[in-house]
Amino acid sequence: MALKEYRIDRTAYLYETIKYYFDEPDAIFVGEFNGCLVLIHHELTWLLLEESLGDRAVRIINFFKNSEIVAIAENGTSYSFGYALIRNQQRIRLKIGDDGEILEDVGTALDAEKKLLADMNKRGQYQGLVEENLYEGDTIEQAHQLAQFEVCWRVPNVLFEQYLHQKLDWLSDNLILTRCLPT
Fold first, then answer.
1. In a 3-state reduction of DSSP, which class is residue 146?
2. What is the pLDDT of residue 109?
């Protein structure tokens, strides 16, 4: 993501931003919702989800001193997710998973992770996931591993709700961002 000059182009709903990942990869989407700055760019999230933060990620983090930065990625098609929490220029949590396997797990579990697991246990959903995987022929260890992955895969939606105080499904259809294009 090289430093470029941008111009305001038009508004777009959150759900529309995905098509620009391929058609206009240099587009940046900017908005504000419930006191949070929302930035979307096809490289931005991944810069903050790298295990070792590069120079560009450090510059972004340093620009937003004394802030919380949450980088979130979730893809239901590939069954992958990633999230990172950076607080006061320190990354305190990084978790990435793909196709049933946790690839990165750095830092202490977030309150959102703990609460989600507790809620799923209370409602019997976690045990249901374990039993579902056992039914498909996995060992008990594999069934628990896949159930843990499923819990983690749901965390990005919980983080959207925690920070923006709205469910992602609602935001997708209602959050309007400004699309900015390179000049």
1. helix
2. 96
Query: 123 is written with which tokens?
Result: 């409602």
Segment holding 13, helix H or strand E = strand 6-13
- Report if pTM > 0.90: no
Q: What residues contact 39, with CB distance under 8 A and at least 6 apart?
A: 28, 29, 30
| Nearest alpha carbon to residue 169 among 76, 90, 57 | 76
Check: CB of residue 142 under 8 Å from CB of residue 133.
Answer: yes
First to last CA, the chain: 15
Strand order across the 28-33 sheet: 6-13, 176-182, 28-33, 36-40
| Rounded Cα–Cα distance for residues 128 and 32 (Å) | 38
The dihedral built from the CA positions of residue 47, 109, 78 and 156, taken in this order, carries a sign that is negative
